[in-house]
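About this split. The held-out portion is used to measure sequence recovery: a designer receives only the structure tokens and must propose an amino acid at every position. Recovery is the fraction of positions where the proposal matches the reference. Here is one held-out target exactly as it appears in the evaluation file.
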């Protein structure tokens, strides 16, 4: 199954696309109220709930199981390199004169640079190009790391299009360099799927999460139930990661 097809199904099944399709189905079946009204109720309820911080935090908490690394863990880490996974581009950025790293990727790069300053470990970047003419994400990431964050990149993997490919294509590069274990840098909610992919590829990883989501929500208050675009975004990724991990386990 192609990456583009998977992305299309992802958009149609998960919020907000999935609930919207259910609502549209309810409207199309308006003459048959027995089916129309339950579909409308289901679609509207799902759309509302997935847009609330309470549900977003509820969905995110189980998929952010890894805690932030402590100073003691970094000082005594057995890792031999920092491996950061790419996460999107900001296309045709007018202020930068071309493509650059997306905000999501920037969060990972900033943490990778921070880790390098504390561990002096080399940075490896993994990420390719998804159907556009611009440079691979790994090249954009190296440019930001070196020119803007003052870090040094020792190696690139610039062909992968998915997390599974990140792992499969990076493994031989690590083996050739004699690197047996890495600090794996990505978003906290992405790490369970990434860790699974890399361990299945035979790469020993120490999870190095950044940009935690579930802990950023208030524990109580009316704001828990007020819909927001940010909560919808987080609900989407919480479900996306669950389905992605299930897909890996079933397919591979």
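Reference sequence for scoring:
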């Amino acid at each position: 199954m192609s990456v583009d097809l998977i992305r299309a199904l992802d958009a149609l099944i998960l919020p907000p696309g999935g609930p919207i399709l259910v609502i549209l189905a309810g409207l199309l079946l308006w003459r048959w109220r027995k089916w129309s009204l339950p579909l409308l109720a289901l679609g509207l309820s799902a759309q509302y709930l997935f847009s609330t911080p309470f549900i977003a935090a509820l969905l995110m908490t189980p998929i952010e199981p890894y805690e932030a690394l402590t100073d003691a863990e970094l000082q005594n880490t057995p890792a031999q390199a920092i491996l950061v996974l790419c996460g999107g581009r900001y296309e045709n950025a007018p202020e930068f004169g071309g493509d650059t790293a997306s905000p999501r990727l920037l969060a990972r790069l900033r943490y990778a640079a921070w880790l390098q300053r504390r561990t002096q470990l080399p940075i490896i970047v993994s990420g390719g190009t998804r159907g556009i003419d611009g440079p691979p994400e790994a090249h954009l990431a190296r440019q930001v790391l070196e020119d803007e964050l003052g870090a040094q990149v020792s190696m690139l993997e610039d062909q992968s299009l998915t997390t599974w490919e990140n792992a499969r294509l990076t493994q031989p590069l690590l083996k050739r360099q004699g690197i047996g274990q890495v600090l794996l840098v990505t978003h906290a909610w992405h790490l369970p799927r990434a860790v699974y992919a890399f361990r299945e590829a035979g790469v020993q990883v120490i999870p190095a999460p950044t940009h935690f989501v579930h802990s950023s929500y208030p524990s109580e208050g009316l704001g828990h139930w007020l819909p927001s675009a940010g909560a919808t975004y987080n609900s989407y990724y919480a479900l996306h990661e669950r389905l992605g991990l299930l897909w890996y386990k079933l397919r591979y």
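Annotator remark: DSSP finds ten helices and seven strands in the chain.
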